[in-house]
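Exercise 7.
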Amino acid sequence: MIKAGIIGATGYAGAELVRLLLGHKEAEIVWYGSRSYVDQSYASIYQNMFQLVDATCMDDNMEELAAQADVIFTATPQGLCASLINEKILSGTKVIDLSADFRLKDVSVYEEWYKIKHQAPQYLEEAVYGLCEINREKIKTARLVANPGCYPTCSTLSIYPLAKEGLIDLSTLIIDAKSGTSGAGRGAKTDNLYCEVNENIKAYGVAGHRHTPEIEEQLGYASGEKVTLNFTPHLVPMNRGILITAYASLKKDVAYSDVKAVYDKYYEKERFVRVLPENVCPQTRWVEGSNYVDVNFKIDPRTNRIIMMGAMDNLVKGAAGQAVQNMNLLFGLDEAEGLYHAPMFP
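Solution. The predicted structure, written as tokens, is:
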């Protein structure tokens, strides 16, 4: 059995990791880390775990955890993993970081967008960006995996095939994104109170959201060119889900069959990316609770643009599910182990 430890087990992403790992045939959780709830029963914080988890929360002593675990998940705020990680830890265990600490290769870009000093820049080059559908082989041999952000996962997978094949003018790319409120985390914030969120939709992080450089970097790798784009996220009054609608100009005339063949080239054999039938738009309700990403596209010949769409659960494929998928790759398991759940509806 793979012994797994979680630091940040009482946040939404951490709690989703617990749920998924409890159903994993090859893994057991040996450490429920939570700085806010040390010595409290985990099931008293998440009562859905009553009689399922008989453990108390522990601290974030990563070195002690590394001596007990084969893999450590850090579902923590930006900066914490980088402040704790060292060579001793990485020589003894695998680390899958769900924060942004190791996603960006340029430390100056990280510090500019996240407004904090990077505490472990020496590991940036080594860290593997854990988007399984794109970096599968690199992930298998990694010590440190940077689990992608939720918006970047959905955005990149929706756009990647066309960027890779050079079919779109990336200088014209605009991404409109919507997310459920769990994406903002479990911390108490006035803007996330029920009365503030209910019956409302709003843009936030306009022209400055932290996930922008992550999307630009990944699409830059795909296209082989520097990418600068507009990314605007919106908060929607629902618990889970991300919907991406992206727009770009086409570089040449294409038919539906041409573009469909490109998407199939990259995703036909992928377990968790579903290319929908023609004229069927992705919806968050059809991926909720699952590790699936539904993608599709629509050509607009009138404007010579293409609309690329994607939907996924921000807590599963956007966080914990992708982390488990990465763990499976690291340990040579079936990539879908622990992730076979069909989407929930209603």
